[in-house]
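=== RUN LOG ===
request id: a7f3
mode: sequence -> structure
chains: 1
length: 259
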Amino acid sequence: MEKEINKNKSLEFEEHVAFITGGGRGFGKAFGQALMKRGARIVLADIDSAAAEEAAAELRASGGEALPVKCDVADEIQVAAAIELAVSEYGGIDILINNAGLHSAAYAEPMSSSGINKLRRLFDVNVMGVIICSLAARQAMAGRVDSVIINISSSAAYDYPTAYGVSKLAVRGLTITMARDFKAYGIRVNAIAPGLIYTETIRKELPEWVLDTVKKQQILDREGDVKDIVEAMLYLASARSAFITGETLRVSGGFTLAI
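=== RESULT ===
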């Protein structure tokens, strides 16, 4: 029985098409790799076309189908073109992952310190990007079996003294609203709120004392890994979560429970 379950899960996304924003690196690239290994065809949309091309080439070299496309999620015309390309290539979209976002240390500051131009770009990408991509993909996902949207929020959405935290709080709210609105199209909508995940970027940007402080506030005494977020994504993207919508899954080692 266990072998049969593993066999089913190994290709559980066969015939599925996944459209991943920010797909050229980080979480987005890891999401594409995991879904491709389980049978999905992948569209990697990224403002950095070179990164998208490189990531797609890696997927194709592993035997998968992957389409790179340059796309600024805050640009309605570019998003519409990217969705149209995905549909023309693969026939539709089953999984939309709104992963693209601005999240560097530059945005981890009070709104009063950010300046209007920086704030506008932050909210254009982190908030409007989710709205634009979801609305653009809605018809391409409508009526398909197990179609699902997964938004990427953050544990910062539960403790939001920074502009970044406020933008990710908005993503949590959008997830609820979209779940209600998109029900008529047969689309479930959920979100993941990662805690501190020890990527190369995080290790470079944050001083050791900050990493240690966050780790001490977690319940689980270990570092968060990209694979923790990938596993949450695979669950929410699958039929195993068929009775879940409008929810934000916190994957933070218990950090956000103390907030």
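=== NOTES ===
The longest strand covers residues 188-194.
The radius of gyration is 18 Å.
=== END ===
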